[in-house]
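Checklist before submission:
- one chain only
- standard amino acids only
- sequence pasted in full

Submission:
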Amino acid sequence: MNPERAAPPPRPRVLLIEDDDAFAGIVRWWLAGGDDGVELERRATLAEGLRRLAEGGVDLLLLDLVLPDGGGWDTFAAVSERFPRLPVVVLTGLAGEGLGIRAIQRGAQDYLVKGRADGETLRRAVRYAIERRGLLRREEDFFHDVNHELRAPLSVLRGALAALSAGGEPLDDERGELLRIADASARQLTALLDDLVEFARADMDKLAVELRPERLDELLRETIRAFSAAAAEKRIVLATELPSRLPLALADPVRTRQILHNLTANAIKFTPSGGRVVLSAGRWDEDPRFLRVSVCDTGPGVDARQAEKFFERGFQGGSERDRRPGLGIGLYVCRRLAALQGGRIWAETRGAGGAFCFTVPAAEKGSRTVVRPSCRPRGAPTQ
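Returned file contents:
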């Protein structure tokens, strides 16, 4: 008796949103002519397509940018904002190639110009987009497993070290020092794991923000309290400079706090003993619709030639002696978080030291909570 054959995997389901019957027929004919084995569905309007996407089960979207109820960039934006994880291949006319390039920059997998595309080009774009989607899912599973497998033993290790430190018997100087070294190493490993997880979320477009009216002054004061011990250890003055009346920000408090903590930790690290770190906030002179937050220090300053590199993956400024152990991805994640909130982040030299600044929108009267889904933020580099 022959063993049962395994059932073939389900064919990828492709949705085509296209109002031109003739071109839709061509697409169906092109995809049927290959060996990729996809199932094609078609909707003629953006509204019908969005309703079908909401039902789920679509692996790839072929999207015409000019539809009866949507035109140009707004068509892609309507899809990407509601379904940011869905792979999209944009279809444009001969005059719309610029829109296709813009869609790529904002997260589309590919674009095809109708007057130049052929069956092989379309099949290749569909195949690559689906393969990239599968690779992304495998990466997500990998990082989830790494996070789980490493964090559990680290928690046990830190708990054991805490129990030893709190033991009743006094430790001699040598054993006490070894225990402190072990505890510091465990904390460093935990921090590296946190950085790795945040990097994975940022690189896979899984960061999300919930924007709501928020008091920046409270977030700055909270950051001061959190880093007061670290600053005191280096005899660094940690202070705030705030106007008497600071407008509310439309920001995610968790993500804004994450940016503040990263910038403050870096400032304390690179500021010499006896220096000063100041956190400030106020209206942004260049655009009053935004608030600017600055973390200024009396450290070595910022080399203008490296200002943009600070926010690249893996880059670490400063001399080899001054660099702290780490992955060099904290500022990269900060840039993504700032962009997700509608702002930007940059580094500059200020006086005798340096400053890292970022912006968040100011809350207007009647502002409500806005949930921005996990997607590549508008304008964020795709490096």
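Reviewer check: The chain is about 45% helix and 20% strand.
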